[in-house]
Specification:
2 copies of one chain form a homodimer. By secondary structure, chain A is mainly alpha-helical. Chain A has 20 helices and 6 strands. The first copy, chain A, has 3 domains: 108 residues, MgtE N-terminal fold; 118 residues, CBS-domain (Roll), CATH 3.10.580; 171 residues, Tetracycline Repressor, domain 2. The longest helix of chain A is centred in the C-terminal third of the chain and has 31 residues. The model of chain A has no long low-confidence stretch (mean pLDDT 88).
Chain lengths: 434, 434
């Protein structure tokens, strides 16, 4: 690329899949990326840009000429074009759209007008729709003769003159039917469909639950406006899982490997700051027992064990709760049963570790009464941890706060505060340290 | 169901999608589930059993007559049949297979012989394969006349007389071609294919990366043995994400909402036991500084803050590392850069929280020199936490240990040990408490 050897570069890139071109782009130095694209000119398939990190894509798009971008997105299916354009500023979008022919401009603009993370942003506006009175033969001939078909498709749609969706015909059904058969005779009356304003997450759940490969997208008036195919949904599923894992780990969902050090440090700072507040609260609880700690320093040595066990048990329950909520397996129907079960699990493991750790503490410090003290504290802490771990995500979900993001600090606060308070409080009473 | 009213029950179930029947089964009391299936008889679609929790499915299958199960799986596509049978004991499998016709028995047996979590288990053995010299017309006529076609398919395969895979033709391409055109003229020479022994996880990555909808499965000899479609892959992707989230939260990947209290408690006990060992190690470190703690109890109050901040910073780095490894975005090419970046992020946030917490500690305890002590400890701890959080998952991955499962305890050990040691050690030296 550095040498500007167009021939060799395009030979190299020609046979690569768009996903591999994306990887290649990411591997290049930032300044070489737009160079490569300009070098390739018409040979560069812009769909490769859907395969790179957001930060990399934005950088590349900023460097490229508006005309080049307009030319590039023009060749794409509309869902890929929307994906590339949606993170740009409104001004940049408008400038690029200006360079497109009217039909494509209107289609893209309409898709971009749907809210972020809606089905309307995910759909492609290229689809095949035929009237119900056509025959299989007519339909096949129509497809053979039409030049501008979508890149790939798995069903054709049946619409009335107002483009309202009447039904759908999977391709394999079309292929297996004889030419004179009417479309209305083989179409599915209740085609898989979603509304353009539906959340992508809900669309993904539907695809998953009903094993769909494509679904019609309709607007408020029931008119067919696009189609969502499973390859886009797979990306949504992966993104959702990615966001959930990162949220649980205290990392912003949009943090990417290509981000720079300052962005990353700033993003993680917020989470650590929230954690600092809960940690200070826990320390304040310890501060209440300064006298006890002075009299018996063994308590200071053992107290992190109680808090740590509580923290881990709480995280276990919380993980199960967050997962079950995300997969819609935890709802009003079974929430009582699951909460009761978690408390029981906490209690059982509380008792188990009370025995283990009671013996360890007695042996370690040679102080027989330390056993029941730490044992009791573990039972209280692990049971509360399990209760908090399940109830907090459920409550957050009811108040429509994302439980994966917000549960952690609450659960940690409960396990730390209860852990330190139970252990130091019981010890103070038991040993009369007050 | 209780009243055994077959007519009303089948009316009720008739129009439901298999996924909804699955949900219905899970909502019933355990003893009613097999009753419902027997009541429905031939009207019950066994594919609903692929939609319920593993534990529920195993219970139901145990209760049902072998003949009923054999009859039920016979109607299924082979991938669903394998999914239902694979968790049964070998003896139960053999008994059910005996009741099947020879052709289906052999096909299922072969799929079950592939290793667990391999592509061979995921594939369906029903597919359409034609010779390259056929024409489009011949192929379409063949599909119209053949009764026993797969339920849905997105491409047909082209094979030689030895059933070795030569190419594939997507259905839309077939539909758009004229009848006299030869299949060899429109087929893709390099069809998307995987080997039967490939890991499901790798198959899922391929589907995702290259936006596939179906892929041929070939055996060692290059013979076409089945086809994997995206709906199965979506389940694999979801399972992988589920396993990763649970592993990071210290929960066994196969824990399900329908498990009973004892199974769950036992499963989580193991993780908590590992955690107890790391907590005891951290306590032992605190034990080294008993004298310092006796002289200055403020240290006992503040020390959990240092450990907790380290733990959270370590978890952040670890989450990013585990994610990047799972998505194959972290490899030999960029590992140095990412490790360096994480250390820098740890250092930056270490300095930031050193300032914040230094001021808080001084104000709280009115002891000016406590500021630099806790500040220094935070810088050391957060930097080590970031380093451990990224390096441990990478090392585990190199030794082919699942980083999502095993990283947690190591990272916690590092952050706790370093946190307590740094804070108490620096304080002991600074204040001359030794």
């Amino acid at each position: 690329v550095g040498a500007g050897d167009r021939g060799r570069v395009s030979l190299l890139v020609e046979d690569l899949h768009q996903a591999d071109v994306g990887t290649l782009l990411e591997a290049l130095e930032p300044e070489e990326r737009p160079q490569l694209i300009e070098l390739l000119g018409r040979d560069f398939d812009f769909s490769a840009l859907t395969e790179v990190d957001d930060a990399v894509r934005e950088e590349i798009l900023e460097e490229l000429e508006t005309e080049t971008v307009a030319e590039g997105v023009r060749d794409l299916d509309s869902d890929d074009a929307v994906y590339i354009l949606e993170d740009l500023t409104d001004a940049d979008q408008a400038e690029i759209l200006q360079h497109l022919p009217a039909v494509e401009r209107v289609a893209l603009q309409r898709a971009l007008d749907y809210p972020e993370d809606s089905a309307g942003r995910l759909m492609q506006t290229e689809f095949i729709a035929v009237p119900p009175f056509w025959t299989v033969g007519q339909t096949i001939d129509f497809m053979r003769e039409t030049e501008e078909l979508p890149d790939t498709f798995y069903e054709i749609f049946v619409v009335d003159p107002g483009i309202r969706l009447l039904g759908s015909v999977p391709l394999d059904k079309l292929l297996r039917s004889k030419r004179p058969v009417r479309i209305s005779g083989i179409m599915l009356d209740e085609p898989d469909q979603v509304e353009a304003t539906d959340q992508q997450e809900d669309v993904a759940r539907r695809f998953q639950r009903y094993n769909l490969v494509s679904a019609a997208v309709i607007d408020e008036a029931g008119r067919l406006v696009g189609v969502i195919t499973i390859d886009d949904v797979v990306d949504v599923i992966e993104e959702e899982a990615d966001a959930e894992i990162k949220a649980l780990g205290g990392v912003k969902p949009d943090e990417e490997l290509s981000d720079n050090v300052w962005e990353i440090a700033r993003g993680r700072f917020t989470w650590l700051l929230v954690n600092l507040l809960t940690a200070i609260l826990a320390s304040a609880v310890i501060g209440l027992f300064e006298k006890s700690l002075e009299k018996m320093v063994a308590l200071a040595v053992l107290m992190p064990i109680v808090a740590s066990m509580g923290g881990n048990a709480g995280t276990q329950s919380m993980t199960v709760a967050v997962r079950a909520l995300a997969t819609r397996n935890l709802g009003r129907g079974n929430v009582r049963r699951i909460v009761g079960r978690e408390i029981l699990v906490g209690l059982i493991n509380g008792v188990a570790f009370a025995l283990v750790m009671g013996v360890v503490a007695v042996v370690w410090f040679g102080l027989p009464s330390l056993g029941p003290v730490i044992g009791l504290a573990l039972i209280v802490t692990l049971t509360s941890a399990a209760f908090g771990g399940i109830v907090i995500p459920v409550l957050l979900d009811r108040f429509e706060v994302d439980p994966a993001v917000a549960s952690g600090p609450f659960v940690t606060t409960i396990t730390d505060v209860v852990g330190f308070f139970a252990f130091l409080g019981i010890a103070t009473l038991w040993f009369g340290l007050g």
